[in-house]
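Fold it.
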Amino acid sequence: MTEDYLRRIGTLIRDARQHRGWTQAQLAETLGTSQSAINRIERGHQNLSLEMLARIGDALDSEIVSLGRSGPMHLRVVGGRQLSGSIDVKTSKNACVALLCASLLNHGRTTLRQVARIEEVNRILEVLHSIGVRTRWLNENNDLEILPPATLDLDGMDVAAARRTRSVLMFLGPLMHREDRFQLPYAGGCDLGTRTVEPHMVALRKFGLEVKATSGFYHAEVDRTVSPGAIVLTERGDTVTENALLAAARHDGVTVIRNASPNYMVQDLCFFLAELGVRIEGVGTTTLTVHGVPTIDRDVDYAPSEDPIEAMSLITAAIVTASELTVRRVPIEFMEIELAHLEEMGLHFTRSEEYASHNGRTRLVDVTVFPSTLRAPIDKIHPMPFPGLNIDNVPFFAVIAATANGTTLIHDWVYENRAIHLTELNKLGGRVRLADPHRIYVDGPTHWSGTEVICPPALRPAVCILLAMLAAKGTSVLRNIYVINRGYEDLAERLNQLGAQIESFRDI
């Protein structure tokens, strides 16, 4: 490998490691090497074999190199083009993943409509297949049929696929109703007690699930004599709430879940559980009362609702390219705060009358965005639990603020490293200043210019880089877009249908 290529690969490895929250020593221990070797690799001073690159990619859940295929996928973007027309928002990634996990509660046939065909969904399907669940795509509309076996083959679980998705944690709630003892692999060597894991264990312990983490696995044992009654979540997290719901759904009794997330994917899960015969009171609030049923054996047909994060992505694409664009099927209940902020910044847009999603419950509108001169908001942009500004929509305001007049403070208090990745916008001409791991200052307006960027290992900042490239003069290259494909289906092709010029390619 050339020195320049080694340096770029080293930067990618460093970013992926930091995104996972690992030190160099932790990565070294996982790979069976020394911290000094990792330091040399990240500085581009160490030759790398394809085998080592593959091992690093598996450890960090980042497609640095792809063995047996023709290599990672990249995008070439010719920027400076306006978009036009209309585009539909696809179904929610986070809801689809939760519903796939929830299908394990049901002994009958589950049919999910218009499931997002993304890499995150593919990984969950691989895990389901490996334990004996039969699934098949019914048509080109992405309708998915799920048929569980009488007995799950947990010993046959595809460990590699499970380690590539953090969503496998949501198997804990359903599996505790099927097995007295079982084990699940955990991704990236997460330890119990970390912020992302411990709240799950606190909640599920109330249902009699005890989990110990050793040798890369969660070892779970269920005490059937424990009855939760009421539980208080220590973190109002989306997946934590979903896991508690999955545990409560087949608990024979009434469970009250306090400090629950009322976010969009949690509501979708509640609507789906209602189709399975589980009565839930308080949907959309922070207190859920779940009337569980001990056995579920129903043939159900459910349509997940649309994704507010994709809606925000598409609205951002219109803003940064100064385009008139209609984004259809926007779940307005989960976008009202974002649109209110944008209106204060000077964005001109219209919204249609409300209509129902295919699930009959989620309220949708069509939003038409017009070219506007934006100004920086007076107050900082920061996330809050629903009904506040969505955590995953915060990064898009960095790209939007870069088009506005003035300086915007963005405070991403939830994630330790995500704000750092937004400084990659500077490579395209942005002026993003990092105050600390949680806060950035964005100066605008920006004269974007094309360049080559290695895709950040965080999904939303990666999409932000792509959206900025749409506005940048000249040609840009975004390398290694696996992380985007984890959360978006055919995003580049759909943007091309609106007038963008994006070409996918692989290195020869």
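Residues 188-195 have pLDDT under 50 and may be disordered.
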